[in-house]
Amino acid sequence: MELVINLDYKNKKYNLNRKLIFSFTSIMLLGIITIGIFVNLIVEKKFAEYVSQRNEQEVENIKEDIQLSYKGDRWNTKKVQKIGLNALNDGMLLDIYDNNNNLVWSATKYDEDMCHQKMNDIRSNMDNRYPSLDANYKEEKFEITENSEGIGTLSIGYYGYLYYLDNEMDFLNDINRVIIVVATILILISIILSILISNSISRPIANVSEMAKVIEDGNYKNKIEYKSSIKEVDGLINSINKLADSLNNQEVLRKRLTTDVAHELRTPLTSIQTHLEAILDGIWEPTNSRITSINEEVIRLANLVSKLNSLSKLENNEQKLNIQNVSVSNLIQNIIYNFQSKAIAKNIDINYKVENFYADIDKDKISQVVVNLISNAIRYTDEGGKIDINLKQDLIYTYISIKDTGSGIPQMDLIHIFERFYRVDKSRSKNTGGIGVGLTISKAIVNLHKGDIKVKSTVNIGSDFTVVIPRNLLNS
Ligand code: ADP
């Protein structure tokens, strides 16, 4: 049996909400715990300083009080005992000797059990709080004087400065308890806040992702109608909506293309079919002119298929440009030369100012563009019209303008003429033999050259198509 253990942690996917909650909570926990530890350390330090000062003061007070218990060459043992018991209560064991070293009063002598009890309590308090510290019991001896004359000795025994009395321990424990309660409340609040913040970030993203799924299923017309308070999420919604729009346009275009192609193929095919059937059925004689007419339809069909083929190659970026520095003026002149007979047949005058300009272009493809534009100009210009062809250059661009005095294009059609199969006047185009892909192909070619085709047109006055191409494509 094969055992596969997945150690690919990086590829493990987490829910955004959970990840955010986990991150926020961890950061807040870390902060709260650090602050808690700091507060605790500061309190302990300050409290230890206070206890140490308190001890020093206490020792001074005891010395003063003991001295005052000596009146008229005698010790006031009652007073001494009171001071001794108070000191015992504060964790200090007193032994007072007179000048002859006779014991006046001793805490251990007075009540040994109580002394043990008290000192043990202090010891265990210290052990609990500072287990690593050794309890340092010390005894200090002081000379008691009156008017600079020795009257006895005072011995004070107590644990070092870190000893805490019960009430001080209680105080410290209370502070610790308050820190723990406050920290717990803060942790709870931070968890709730983390959940709220994480939800406010992850919910809009989850919503957008849900809605995007609807679009992903092909419902491109659906729009994400969701306003988020997060700028980036709004940007994402905008992009998805634009993507859906563009997919929708592509879809419409794809469907229209299929119908258009079917329609364009059907018309000449039906015409060929009916003509051939009429000849086969003996209704028509297979005369030369009839066969020529069928042949023209076949040529039209082949022409359409070849244009569609080159358009699809251009649009799929399958066509690579063969850029060379060539004389644009020569190229245009040759094309005009080839169109002369057609122009003369329609009594159309073609004017072209010869100026020798060079540019970096794909010669064959730009020829195709100029051929399309001149052929359109001749096609849509009535007999006796005029076509002006101009070539201009500035530092960056080459401009080829083909201006006719033809039928012109209505303003509302101008934005559509570069779309596939778009024809302004379908019946007229039929007569003129156009199929509505010439401008689409031309624009695709010029765009491949990083240029553009601009058009100005007025109905019944004429049209002016200008091809704009960058001059130095080879160096860019
Ligand atoms: P077509 O093969 O039909 O000429 P094009 O793509 O070349 O297709 O042109 C699209 C449409 O733009 C034409 O059907 C025509 O209506 C209009 N058009 C193009 N050039 C001209 C022009 N010079 N004068 C008037 N209309 C034009």
Walkthrough of the structure:
The chain has 476 residues and is α+β, with helices and mostly antiparallel strands. It is 58% helix and 17% strand. It has a 5-stranded mixed sheet, with helices on one face. Helix 7 runs parallel beside helix 12. The longest helix has 53 residues. The two termini are 62 Å apart. The site of adenosine-5'-diphosphate (ADP) has 22 residues, from helix 9 and helix 12.
Mean pLDDT: 86
Question: How are the strands of the biggest sheet laid out side by side?
Answer: 8-10-11-13-12
Number of strands: 13
Helix tally equals 12
> Per DSSP, what share of the residues sits in E-state strands of 2 or more residues?
15-25%
Class of secondary structure makeup = alpha+beta
User: Radius of gyration in whole Å, from Cα?
Assistant: 52 Å
- Looking at how many chains there are and whether they match, the oligomeric state comes to single chain
Strand count, sense and barrel status of the largest sheet are:
5 strands, mixed
Can you lay out the helices and strands and say which pair or pack?
Elements: H1 16-68, E1 70-71, E2 74-75, H2 77-89, E3 93-98, E4 103-106, H3 107-110, H4 112-129, E5 137-146, E6 149-159, H5 166-216, H6 231-280, H7 288-315, E7 323-327, H8 328-345, E8 349-352, E9 358-362, H9 363-379, E10 386-393, E11 397-404, H10 411-414, H11 426-432, H12 438-448, E12 452-458, E13 462-470
Parallel strand pairs: 8-10
Antiparallel strand pairs: 1-2, 3-4, 3-6, 5-6, 7-9, 10-11, 11-13, 12-13
The site of adenosine-5'-diphosphate has 22 residues, from helix 9 and helix 12.
